[in-house]
Amino acid sequence: MLDRLAVPVIAAPMAGGASTPELVAEVGRAGGLGFLAAGYLSVEAVAAQLTATAALTDRPYGVNLFVPGAKSTVDVSGYRERVRAQSGAEPGEPHWDDDGYAAKLELVTAMRVPVVSFTFGLPDAHDVRRLHAAGSTVVVTVTTPAEASQAARIGADALCVQGCDAGGHRGTFADDGVSPGGGELFGVLAALRLVRARVDLPLIAAGGLVHGADVAAVVTAGAVAAQLGTAFLSCPEAGTSAAHRRELADGTRRTALTRAFSGRPARGLVNRFLTDNGPHAPAAYPEVHHLTKPVRATGDPELMSLWAGQTYALVRPAPAAEVVARLQAEARQALSAAIMRIPPL
Ligand SMILES: Cc1cc2nc3c(=O)[nH]c(=O)nc-3n(C[C@H](O)[C@H](O)[C@H](O)COP(=O)(O)O)c2cc1C
Predict the structure, then answer these.
(1) For helices 145-153 and 188-198, what crossing angle results, to 10°?
(2) pLDDT tens digits for 301-343?
(3) Which of 112, 211, 255, 260 is 20 to 30 A off residue 93, Cα-Cα?
């Protein structure tokens, strides 16, 4: 179904409140595909969002799940003390959990959600078969050609190829704990071309795409659709916090990859918390995520995570349906201009 979208634009799943049923419905109405983000939510909250989405739209939509990783063996007590001292806030208790994965998987299978995507790892092949039996299209987020090969082997129908330019968490299967992005970094076009040479599956491109010319570029490079997150963060239908919106609109901060907030590499706007703690943050997700929760909840832009893709300053805020229509018009214009510049042989 991904290759049959009226407009090859997908509003990325954005956990933490930005993705809403309203955003999903408006993107669908405009001919794109909207995503709900199940990450961090209780299974009851995900069920409520599914019901709300069904009441707003009869267009297809997607739900994204976090695949749980292994329990970390890293000692995070030193980092906890550091966060307490640096932020002045009382950190939370670091602990491992699986984000309610099994129950969420049961829910989306039972509800026959049209598109189910996974990030942070691979679903079991058995669960993929159950989703197929329920009529769902299964998408796995990958950041390297090696991850793409693994995802193809468990029966994924399509891959979301995420470049290192992307806002929010990287979907890397395993964090190497050393390099800033948890592994080798590929920009979105490089990732797309390398994955395309490795697997024969429909590919969705994600990372730093904000203009119709970017949509045209990834479609020209072989993607069936472009997945944009940051471009939809400033839409009135998104649940983005006021402080996050203000910092995005300001446009003066640079972005960086960091483990400071969650223990997993993610790209966000550089603030005091990121600068002070990023170099010291252990690769321990979700332990660090729980530890920093009260600090992030202060709503202080110097202490909270301000996820954003590398090109965030180019975003022009508008209602979601307008964003999709503008991307479509710009993409067509960019393609016509490009064809004029490339004469036939
Ligand atoms: C605030 C925010 C939250 C995100 N949450 C998720 C998520 O829950 N699941 C997921 O697969 N990707 C998530 N992402 C990553 C997006 O799927 C996508 O890869 C990214 O937004 C693309 O880069 P861009 O933001 O430059 O468009 C998130 C991105 C942002 C900005």
Answers:
(1) 40
(2) 999 999 999 999 999 999 999 999 999 999 999 999 999 999 9
(3) 255
